[in-house]
Input
Amino acid sequence: MCGIVGLYLKNQALEPQLGKLFEPMLLAMTDRGPDSAGFAIYGDEVQDGWVKLTLQSSAEEYDWKQLMGALEGRLGCSLDWFRNASAAVLKVQTEEAKVREALAELAADVRIMSAGQSIEILKGMGLPADIAERFSLANMKGSHIIGHTRMATESAVTMEGSHPFSTGADLCLVHNGSLSNHSRLRQLLKRQGITFETENDTEVAAGYLTWRLREGDSLKAALDHSLEDLDGFFTFAIGTRNGFAVIRDPIACKPAILAETDDYVAMASEYQALASLPGIDKARVWEPEPATMYIWERTAA
Amino acid sequence: MNKFDLATDSVRELNQALHDQAKELTEREWHVSNPGGKHNLVVGVNEALSIDIDGHAGYYCAGMNQKATVTVHGNVGVGVAENMMSGVVRVKGSASQAAGATAHGGLLVIEGDAGARCGISMKGVDIVVGGSIGHMSCFMAQAGRLVVCGDAGDALGDSLYETRIYVKGTVKSLGSDCIEKEMRAEHLDELKELLHRAGFNEDPASFKRYGSSRQLYNFKVDNASAY
Amino acid sequence: MSDKPTPVLRESATFDRLTIQEIQRAAETGIYDIRGGGTKRKLPHFDDLLLLGASMSRYPLEGYREKCGTDVVLGTRFAKKPIHLKIPVTIAGMSFGALSAQAKEALGRGASIAGTSTTTGDGGMTPEERGQSQTLVYQYLPSRYGMNPDDLRKADAIEIVLGQGAKPGGGGMLLGMKVTERVAGMRTLPIGVDQRSACRHPDWTGPDDLAIKIAEIREITDWEKPIYVKIGASRPYYDVKLAIKAGADVIVLDGMQGGTAATQEVFIEHVGIPILAAIPPAVQALQEMDMHRKVQLIVSGGIRTGADVAKAMAMGADAVAIGTAALIALGDNHPRLDEELKKIGSAAGYYDDWQNGQDPAGITTQNPELSRRLDPVEAGRRLANYLRVLVLEAQTMARACGKSHLHNLDPEDLVALTVEAAAMARVPLAGTNWVPGQGF
Output
């Protein structure tokens, strides 16, 4: 039960302003989700052969420097990193699996929020304004971003239970609604080797997509399958390396609105989250159809 | 003319002023600027005021309207004119889902498209849509008329009671107990009058009529699959 | 004379006579059974709790001299005009349609004498009811039958109904024999249809959208009236939290013993949880959000005696609501109707075919001949008497526990007779300090 926002820039000249354009969109959804908030921003891409991870620690003053030193020694390869509030963004020239293995050994309490070449997921408890300020959202650059404000329904209000949820390399999911068959599905996915950190229904949807993609589905096929296998009410926004996708369940009770201009495509739960965008009064504005996938992606660079 | 700018004035101030105005009635013309998709604009108005909203409105715009004429120069969110009793609400742009939900009377005109569940449980309102409507429209609709100049989505008129539906374009599918019905002279007259009131220049003869086959009005074993 | 003992017929516990009869009925008709009332099976209930009267460690209060307050204020969180009731027992929502106009009027009369509120139902507000109810709560239901802004402004509070204890997740029902000209007119339905109401509201789904809906109703009524949110008990811990987040002033929590005018038997008996099990998680949710006593909690579903009232309040309710008990007080199922009830296949004390509209008491009917039998003044007086007794009984028990106000009753004043009740009510098993599930 939440608010969803997404902004995908078609005009690359706007990329330095992505965070600035997006922040008021996220804040406009405060009433829909006062418990926690988060976003996944895409940009500052690393070269092939490198991987970028977003790490979060529950400790306020975590000693990232010490961890990075140890990691560099353990992996024996080039490493670049910076801290952003309670998170750290790590870029390293090796395979993702090797970094995960090393981090599990060196810092089991540090959580990997995202991994890929472009994605950074930043989220936490509190009002959207607090989260935006904590991570200096307004100063962030990038090509596209999706965000979420959460009104927790059945699972706990925690950083881990906040959206977006990572679903694989450069992929993430945000959700508005409530799934009615997540418990049984979670058991099935666990048997497939998918791990869960929360009791959150959205994490099950994220795990489901991770599983389908791992099984070789295209994103479109995975989402088509989700319409068959997920029961309940949902509007999903999915971030990909090159863009984003939107899909609603066949009943489509949870709101969603899309807007497109020559400069951008924007998505939100309510129009008021779009009202601050430049040129919105001339945009094409419409609602996504039920059980229909909408996807915007630039051709891979 | 009374002017409200929602960039500085609050929705609460606007609605309170409208409710107070209804008692005194010194100013019939109202103008609202910078609505910015805000919710619950001009709800519960109870007097024959004329209100223009210059931009997009959020949920429940003109909810429970009585007597007032409200024009939205933009799009509206969920449940525009929900439970309207009388008056006219005109949306120059498009409407989100549940437009005119449970409305008892008056006229709702949507010049663009309307989303899912348009006219859900409507109870006597007349709704005229210039564009197309989404799925499950007129679900359990009880009375009144819905006119659609474009197309209708899935499950039109599911579990319909006595609402009459006129659609010019295609209907993706009909819901339970909804059937196409013969367009007789009285229906052409009724439709002509509705289109005229809504300001649409369409030929009534190009529309088809849909209504309830009244098979689900009482519990019957033959209908078990529909329950 | 044979030595053989007389053979004893053994009834199957699994296929008992009722079960066999239901299978036979289903095979005959091909459709589920619909009836009125609440669940009939035995459930853990307030009877499984006992109050700990004072003796040496606590001092009791004198019955006729020392005060035991009973008043309650509902809707103090946001409403400009909260509701002040003299007693913490309210009348639950029951529709005109399900009940006769005379019954609705009688409820209003009885409640007003006793200083409490009545509630409309799924069918709009009647002048009889508004006229006779000093304090009237107007229900806002998925169907919105008869909903209009004039009545909204006439109401003293507005109750947004998400569900009821008899059928959480299900919509209302009114069978054709009760959809008379007047009922149909108020609901804008064809006369005689088997009316099935929607289970979800038409223009919002979920707490994020409910927050906007509540704001709309507040705007329409200029933030004067308390907004209640009524929940059928199934996941009360989450639902109460979400109702608070959505902006409710008052939460009405209806347990599965709560009655209904007409619903599938299987729904009544198998969906939802008993009120005993629903109150502790609801109160926990209120406390975790620091909203206990700030957002008031009204509980209902099987309240019959002053002991039930006292125990519900001890568990953390601010007030209770009665439905079935109020109808019995008006005259439903009265022994003098036994013969007439037998003619329609029931008997006094068993009658639950409220869906059929043949109630000889003139309460759950729209038949003018039958409903004329109920004298609203006399029936109202009976209800007022009954309400008075409920409060006197609750006060008696509260005083015995040393409380100068009913709302000072506390879970610590309670023990349970059964392990089940102890676990559900989260109070110790009598004579022990063991609360199952919470260790020692």
Observations:
- The radius of gyration of chain A is 18 Å.
- Chain A has a mean pLDDT of 93.
- The longest helix of chain A spans residues 201-214.
- Chain A touches chain B at residues 251-253, 255, 257, 270-275, 281, 285-287, 289-290 (CB under 8 Å).
